[in-house]
């Protein structure tokens, strides 16, 4: 499934050729698809490894970022995170950097794998608390560690407005886009946050979390790793059931202003996902629509 106009084709034969050229000792291990996101394709390699390949030149910058910073962050966190074991270099056939990570056992976070959503929400809050208190180690909000999430909501208003218009045209009869617009505008009117910049994972949605025995076991996909203001980090809790969302809020003692900004970031990501991936990635569009509906439902209940 191709999602981007500038996407580099990736298949099993391509992965095998990369391994033969750069890691021949792994080239004959069993290889099978292990999922694909908007930015990367993954293949499980043997029992213990995961090959991670960016879809585009733009997302390949995230690969270098993970290779540089994950080994430094991992010892400071209580939950496993990906461990790069090979920094793949470009070839004629695949002109981008790529990675091999240690495989992390765990199940996707779903209603089938999590029974106590409040505990999951509290676990996720503690992960966020730890990450946000890790020393920046000289990192600044610049170059690959600067992302729109973690910056100013107001700087995003123009493109979010266009995406809201797209949602009106695409799913307006099935989603209260006017309410989402009002919540977005209300957040824009709030004072800009003034707290310190911190490490941000950037995309703590359920597909980037792994569960074991019903609890949070690991956090994966640090392609959105950046330095910035923390409000956007909380946006993905609208992808979780209300019990997890409330436990997360309580555990971090978030105030109403922070919550409103986080909700606005959730709206921005949701409407842009519907707008950009409407014709190419229906599963992701469904994920974004569910997030936006949860925001509407949650706002009506408060």
From TrEMBL:
Where in this chain does the record put each Aminoglycoside phosphotransferase domain? Answer: 32-265
Query: What keywords appear on the UniProt entry?
Result: Kinase, Transferase
GO-annotated molecular function: kinase activity
Q: Which InterPro entries match?
A: AGP_Transferase, Aminoglycoside_PTrfase, Kinase-like_dom_sf
Tree of life domain? Bacteria
Query: Is ATP-binding found in the keyword set?
Result: no
PANTHER family attached here?
AMINOGLYCOSIDE PHOSPHOTRANSFERASE-RELATED-RELATED, BIFUNCTIONAL AAC_APH
Please give the name of this protein.
Predicted kinase, aminoglycoside phosphotransferase (APT) family
Q: Which organism is it from?
A: Micromonospora halophytica
């Amino acid at each position: 499934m191709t999602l981007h106009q500038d996407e580099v084709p990736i298949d099993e034969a391509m992965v095998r050729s990369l391994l033969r050229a750069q890691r021949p000792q792994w080239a004959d291990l069993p290889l099978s698809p292990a999922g694909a996101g908007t930015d990367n394709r993954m293949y499980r390699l043997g029992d213990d490894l995961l090959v991670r390949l960016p879809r585009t030149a733009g997302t390949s910058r995230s690969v270098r970022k993970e290779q540089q910073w994950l080994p430094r962050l991992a010892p400071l966190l209580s939950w496993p995170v990906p461990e790069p074991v090979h920094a793949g270099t470009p070839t004629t056939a695949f002109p981008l950097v790529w990675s091999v990570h240690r495989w992390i056992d765990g199940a996707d976070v779903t209603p089938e794998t999590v029974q106590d959503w409040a505990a999951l929400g509290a676990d996720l809050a503690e992960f966020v608390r730890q990450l946000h208190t890790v020393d920046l180690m000289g990192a600044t909000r610049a170059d690959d560690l600067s992302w729109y999430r973690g910056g100013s909501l107001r700087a995003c208003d123009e493109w979010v407005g266009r995406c809201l218009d797209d949602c009106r045209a695409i799913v307006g009869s099935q989603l209260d886009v006017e309410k989402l617009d009002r919540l977005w505008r209300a957040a824009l009117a709030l004072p800009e946050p003034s707290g310190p910049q911190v490490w941000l994972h950037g995309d703590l949605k359920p597909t980037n979390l792994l569960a074991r025995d019903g609890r949070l076991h690991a956090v994966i996909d640090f392609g959105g790793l950046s330095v910035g203001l923390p409000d956007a980090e909380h946006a993905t809790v609208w992808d979780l059931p209300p019990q997890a969302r409330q436990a997360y809020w309580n555990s971090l003692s978030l105030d109403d202003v922070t919550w409103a900004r986080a909700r606005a970031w959730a709206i921005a990501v949701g409407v842009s996902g519907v707008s950009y991936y409407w014709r190419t990635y229906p599963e992701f569009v469904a994920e974004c629509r569910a997030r936006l509906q949860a925001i509407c439902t949650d706002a009506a209940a408060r």
